[in-house]
Structure formats: structure tokens, C-alpha cells
Amino acid sequence: MSMLIREKLEQWEKDYLSPYASLSMNSRGRQREEEPCDIRPVYQRDRDRILHSKSFRRLKDKTQVFLTPEGDHYRTRLTHTLEVSQNARTIAKALRMNEDLVEAIALGHDLGHTPFGHAGERALAKVCPFGFCHSEQSVRTVEILEKNGRGLNLTDEVRDGIRNHQTKGMPYTLEGRIVRFSDKIAYIHHDMDDAIRGGILKEEDVPKEIGDVIGYTTGERLDHFIHDIVTTSYGSDDIRMSPEVAEAMRKLRNFMFERVYQNKAAKSQEDKAEMLLVSLYEYYLKHLNKLPEYLAVRMERVGDAPEILVCDYIGAMSDRFAIAQYEELFIPKSWHY
Predict the structure, then answer these.
(1) What secondary structure letter does DSSP report for 23?
(2) How large is the average pLDDT for residues 171-188?
């Protein structure tokens, strides 16, 4: 009986979804072959694996844009991820794309992000001779680092969407392209909302040439972006925005870089965060015996470079754990019996 459930769901996808959607039954497969689930199609199973992973839970204590803000309503990397997922699912449902695949990619896209947001990513990219890119690290997390070195064994479609969610990439599935847009929409929307909450921006600061095209409030703009992608992409073999909305989005992103992402007041703690991670990197590179056992095993058996394994360890830390490690290693404590 239960075997029929997955097959019925796969048949429903075939009957109902767009001819351009990725069907679970046509997946390119996993890194390691395994028995299919008797209830869940492959992308739903991937979604569940990501949701139950330790790296997903750590996102709740990782910076989105503002480091350790005072206030309960600023975004974290976890809430960013959930907003990306919701945007992507809304678009996917409207376009009859595979919602499970979209959700799996969205929930996994930032699993490899460092503590302290892009400041942490910059710090590791500077000191590691092999560089550091959070999208590649997210793939490494699901392929290798999760489950103490066994990985999550996700499908190729999900891993491709995670790897190519940034502007420089282009996923081969339309579901991956939906997440790629949804990520940008989410961070522009919520980073502006947080900047307004923090007193760095006011709604009326948005230039008129942008507001006239996509709206003058964060809610109006989010709604406009999603409607535009759905309307422009409907019945098409690609995911796109109309030229005027894409141009307004580009201008809004530039505005955010100028007023928020490079704002000295908003970013006043980032130099400290970078220094902290560089100090941890240099320490663990000299004390490789302090790395978790599953990373040490990769150095011995697989031959991974020590610099990469140190980045694996530090990049996976939450903000709070990184600060605690720094205090433990570098801040003197009162002597006592």
C-alpha cells in the first residue's frame, strides 16, 4: 500500500505540473544509490533531510546583515532562509513547478554560510589559500560535512540549485532559477525592512525612479517582484523578470549597497568579526589536533588540505560559538582552584 503512495505522488506531478517542471521520477539521482522511500518522492525526502540537519539548526544563530542586533525582530540567517523558501514556493506554485524541489534548494542554499555573515566569508576567503565561497561551502556541507562526514546524499538537482543560487551561477532546473531570484528578492526586502527598523533608512529615502516602478513600501515591492516573475515567466521555459522591473531591482540593490551594506554605522563591528575569525583560523591551523575527529579523518584518509578543514570547522560555527571559542582561547580568566 505505502509503495503506491510515492508512485501516485510521482504520477500526480507528471499529470499536473508544467511541462518545464522537474519531475521527481526523472531525477538525475544521488551521489550514492539508495532504496527510494515508499512514501516520499526524492525532492521531498531531500527537503526533510536538510530540515533535520545540524547545519540548518545552526542558521538560527548566524548573522544575516546586522551583527548581534539589539531587538527580537531583526533577521537571522535562518529567518532569511525561511523567507527565501516562502517566496520561492509562492512562485513555484503559481507556475506549476516542483514545489518540493524549490523548497529543498531554498532551505539548503545557505547551509555553508559563515558566522558573522559576509564579513566572515570575506575573512576566510582572504586567509585561506584555496579561497572560500559560501555557495560552494553549502554544497560541501551537504555532500561531505553533515552527519560527521557522511553527508546527506541529496539529489543532483538540489545540489546544483544550492551551488548556483548566487548571481554568478545559473541552475539547470527552473526550480533552481526560482530560488536564485527568490534569494535576491528576500534579502533586498528584509534587509531594507531591518535597516528602517534600525533607523538607517526611511521609506521615503527610496529614489522616486525606483518607487514609481515597484512601489514605495517594502511590502509593495515584495508583492511586485513576485507578481512580475510569475507574469513574465508563465508558460515559458525560463524564469525571468520584465526588463523594467529587473532594472529597478538592480538600482534598488545598488541603493542598498550604498546606504546599508557599506554603511559604516551599520557595519561598525565587522572589522572585529573578521579579526576574530582570522585569529581562530591561525590558531587551528597550528593546532590541527583540536579539530573534530571526522575532519581529522578526512585529512588522513582523503588528503584534504589542513586549510580547507580549518575553514570547514570555523565556517560551520554559529556567531555565539565562534565568540565563545575566541574567549576560551585568547581571553585570560581569573585564576582559581
Answers:
(1) P
(2) 96
Q: Are the beta carbons of 114 and 315 closer than 8 angstroms?
A: yes
Q: For the full predicted model, state whether its pTM sits above 0.85.
A: yes
Helix 218-233 and helix 77-95, axial crossing angle in degrees, nearest 10:
40
Sign of torsion, CA 40 46 50 52?
Answer: positive
Residue type, 112: G
Helix 243-256 and helix 174-197, axial crossing angle in degrees, nearest 10:
40
Rounded CA gap, 231 and 242, in Å?
9
Residue 147 in contact with residue 121, Cβ under 8 Å? no
- HEC readout, 72-129: CCCCEHHHHHHHHHHHHHHHHHHHCCCHHHHHHHHHHCCCCCCCCHHHHHHHHHHHCC
pLDDT of 190 reads 85
Tens-place pLDDT, residues 16-64: 999 999 999 999 999 999 999 999 999 999 999 999 999 999 999 988 7
pLDDT band at 249; cut points 50, 70, 90 = very high
- Domains for the chain: give ranges and CATH numbers: 43-261 (1.10.3210.10), 270-330 (no CATH)
